[in-house]
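User: I'll paste a sequence; please echo it back and then give the predicted structure.

Assistant: Echoing your sequence first, then the prediction.
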Amino acid sequence: HVGAVANFERLLKDGAGDTKAMTSYADSLNAVGRRDEARRWYYRALSIRPSLVAASEGLLDVLMEDGAYD
């Protein structure tokens, strides 16, 4: 996942608005323990496309891991 994080950072720094890429980036951030950043990227993807199930599920996982959602 570390390599994926770097690739997504290059892709998204150009302002790409691809919500699937944002969600995959957030998944990779979460996998390497960067949950705060993952949470922000899940929210960003959902602010563009609220019906994105993968982002909703990822966000829920992060919130549950952090004890913010019971």
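The first helix runs from residue 2 to 13. The mean pLDDT is 86.
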